[in-house]
Amino acid sequence: MLLAWALSLVNPAPLRLRRRGYVRQSGLLHARSRRCRAAWAPHLARARGVILAAAEATVGRGSAVVLGSGLLDDVPLDALAKLFDRVTLVDAVHPWPARLAARRHGNVALMTAEISAGLTDPDLAELCAATDLIVSANLLSQLPIVPIEAYEARGLEAPPRLGTQIVETHLAALDRLAGHVERICLITDTVQRAEDRAFRVTDSLDLMFGVILPPPAEAWDWELAPFGEISRRRRLIHRVHAYPDWRVARG
Question: Which domains does the chain carry?
Answer without folding.
Answer: 38-250 (3.40.50)
